[in-house]
Amino acid sequence: MPGYLLHLTEGKFILDQSFPQYDDDWKKQFMLGTILPDFCSRTEKFMSHFWQKDALNRFYRIPDLSKFSLSYEKELEEKNPLIFGVYAHLMLDYAFYSDYFPEILEPVNREGKPHDVWDDDLYIKVRKSNMRYRKEEFFSSAVLYGDYSKLNRMLLDHYMPYVPCMDDIVLLQTCYREFRELPAIDLPEKLHQVQVYLTEIPQKGKEELLVYHKEELEERLIREAEHFSAII
After folding, report:
1. Is the Cβ–Cβ distance between 87 and 72 less than 8 Å?
2. What is the pLDDT of residues 81-121, one digit of tens each?
3. Which is it for strands 131-134 and 123-126: parallel, antiparallel or unpaired?
4. How far apart are CA 38 and CA 86, in angstroms?
5. Which end of the chain is more exposed for a tag (fewer CB within 10 A), N or C?
6. Domain boundaries, position 12
7. Could you tell me how far CA 49 lies from the centroid of its own chain?
8. Separation CA 184–CA 198 (nearest Å)
């Protein structure tokens, strides 16, 4: 559930901490990997995110990191940049779903009781405000995606992470198929969608966040980047 810019920002932190010596092509492939698992539909993400059993029917969709590590043991040993980026993506998702989201969110039913089932009775309670939202409203520009729009401008302006783009399509086109769990995609179209998404970010995002605490989120990204750098 972390958005594109959260993954790219953490990716920049990882590159700065662990891979400053690698050339630009290596770093660009790594950054593509940090967002590549999201380049498919919700049902296809079961494969691209190595979700645990029954994840499609749950709010908490936790990647199986052990399964990924076994599937890509050779690539990880060889420091394949794209696969390293995918691993960073999955580790951040794992950290958010297993640790961070339970601190700031609670899936409940209409009666306010715990309810981790993806159905019409699922509501998301935001601990920051104690407000409850139907899942369709929560996953919209009115709530979660609105927070991302506000955060994205800050992340782009402050950290300036590399965003995979059509300028590097020849390089990126040759490497993305190394991630075997991704279905066939139109990579140029996906990169175009990312660029369009970024152009729709408001120039100023000073409105209050509804779900996240900005400083806490930044600290979380830095901490997770440090954790990734410590285990690879």
Report:
1. yes
2. 999 999 999 999 999 999 999 999 999 999 999 999 999 99
3. antiparallel
4. 10
5. C
6. 4-231
7. 10
8. 24
